[in-house]
Every structure is written in C-alpha cells, then in structure tokens.
Amino acid sequence: MASCGFAGDAAKEGALSLASFDGADTFILRGTLPANFKIKAQAYYGSEDGACSARGDANSYESSQDKTPHNYKFKIPVSYHKGLCTLKLARVALYATGRYGEKDWQQTYDNGGLRLVDPLPANAPDFSEQGELLVNSQCTWNFKMSQAISRSGEISKLLNCKNLGAYVVGDTLPEKVLTLNINENSEEEPYMNGYWLKTQSGWKPCTGRWGTDYEELCTSPPEFRTFRMNDQECSVYPNCKE
User: Fold this and answer.
1) What CA–CA distance (Å, rounded) separates 222 from 215?
2) I need a labelling partner for 74 at 20 to 30 A (CA). Which of 28, 45, 49, 241 fits?
3) Measured between alpha carbons, how far is 45 from 54 in angstroms, rounded to an integer?
4) Is residue 92 part of a domain?
5) This model's pTM is above 0.85
6) Does residue 1 belong to any structural domain of this protein?
7) How many CA atoms lie within 13 A of 159 on its CB side?
8) CA distance 224 to 201
C-alpha cells in the first residue's frame, strides 16, 4: 500500500511540475487610445531562486485597434506559477502601434515599459493613497521619404511616444490601478531635423546637396524636390499641393 501511495504522490508532483497558472495577486493596467491605435503589454516573470532561474516566462495582453478612440484594460498578475516554481513579475514591455493609412506597411510602433524598481528614482511619481497612478504618453508621427525599393520616395512615418511607461515598486503592485493614456500629437514633424523646411504651405523636402533620390540637408538658399503620397506626386506635406 505504501508503494501505491508513493506512486500517487509522485504522479501528483509530476503533474504539478508541468502546470502553469497565474497568481492571485494582480494589478490593473488601463487607459485610452486614439483612433487606429492599439497597445500590447508583454509581462515577463523570473525567479530569484537559482533552481528556477531558467524557468522564466511571459504573458501577452493586446487591445483592439478600433477606428475611433477607445479604451483598454489588462489585469496583469504580479506572480506566476510554473511547475513548482513561483515567479515574480520582472518587467512589462509596452508596444504602442498606430496606423496612418490603409496599406499593410502604413503602420508602425514605439516601445516603452513598466520598470520594476525599489526604491523609486527621485521625482518618479508614485501611486496615490487610493492605489492609483496616472501617466499620459504623447505620440508624435515623424514623416520621411521611404527608401524601401517597393515604395521609394513615398511618404512613410515613424512613431515617437514620450513617457510610454513608468517606474513601479513590484512589491506594492497588487491591487493597484495604473492608468496609461496614449495621446496623438496633432502636429507631425520631420524625422530628420534640417532636411525639410516649414513654409506657409507646409513642409517641403530639400535637395541639392548630395544628389540622392531622397530628402537632403537643406542648402542656403534651399532647393526643393517632390515626393509621392497616396499615389500622387506632391511638393508640400501634408497637403500635397501648394
């Protein structure tokens, strides 16, 4: 009978060693998104126990990408159980993705994250007594002429998001609410300073310095070139025609 009990215990332990499940201690990450934006959170877990050091894991959370402003809300565990190991949240990577056109390539992202620290850096905001922290991120589109062969000379954009994340103390995270709002800057900017000149009609790409097929560092007096946008030949951004 003893051998049967041992075998049963071994079977249970073997099953447990294969099991993975979230811990009961969680926090909320939520916020608002502009139209055509989405956010992805990648929660990474690790252990301070040397026996579990090679058992790190990650959970992913992703919002919708609606064509109107919308909200998101993720419930993220602060601990994660993998087999016989209890893993703690190590960091949360954040990816804000925006779409600026209907073509497959007309979307891009910027990344940030939640950094788990102890103590907080000087001047870093902390959760309120009510357990809430508000962070506002500002995302700006940076435009340039694409150098990809398939769309050479076409306007493409990169996304630059400031303040996309926060410092948090991991041991204090359970039951907290972190609101991270993503805001879209209405003013777009050139990707490279000094390569486009702002005029009354809009931004104009410079040429005349190196003889390339793309925008170049502006000369004095400036020379301008055309570019392509939405299957049209344009001279000024964003209106295309002067």
Assistant:
1) 12
2) 49
3) 11
4) yes
5) yes
6) no
7) 25
8) 13
Same domain for 168 and 127: yes
Same domain, 186 and 237: no
Whether 219 has a pLDDT exceeding 90, the answer reads yes
Kindly write down the DSSP assignment for every residue of the chain, as one continuous string: -HHHHHHHHHHHHHHHHH-EEE-S-EEEEEEEE-TTEEEEEEEEEE-SSGGGTT--EEEEEE----SS-EEEEEEEESEEEETTEEEEEEEEEEEEEEE-SSSTTSEEEEEEEEEE-SSPPTT-----TTSEEEEEEEEEEEEEE---GGGTTBEEEEEEEET-EEEE-GGG-TT-EEEEEEEE-SS-EESSTTSEEE-SS-EEEEESSS--SS-----SS-EE--EEETTEEESBBTTB--
CB 45 within 8 A of CB 58: yes
Q: Does residue 231 contact residue 102 with C-beta atoms inside 8 Å?
A: no
**CA-CA distance, 204 to 78, in Å (whole number)?**
49
Residues 232 and 150 in one domain: no
Residue 54 has pLDDT above 60, yes or no: no
Distance of CA 87 to the CA centre of its chain: 24
Q: Residue 111: which residues within 8 A CB-CB, separation 6 or more?
A: 93, 94, 95, 96, 164
Beta strand 155-162 pairing with 132-145? antiparallel
Q: 167 and 78 in one domain? A: yes
Which residues, 6 or more positions from 59, have their beta carbon under 8 angstroms from its beta carbon? Answer: 22, 42, 43, 45, 76, 77, 80
pLDDT tens-digit map of 171-209? 999 999 999 999 999 999 999 999 999 999 999 999 999
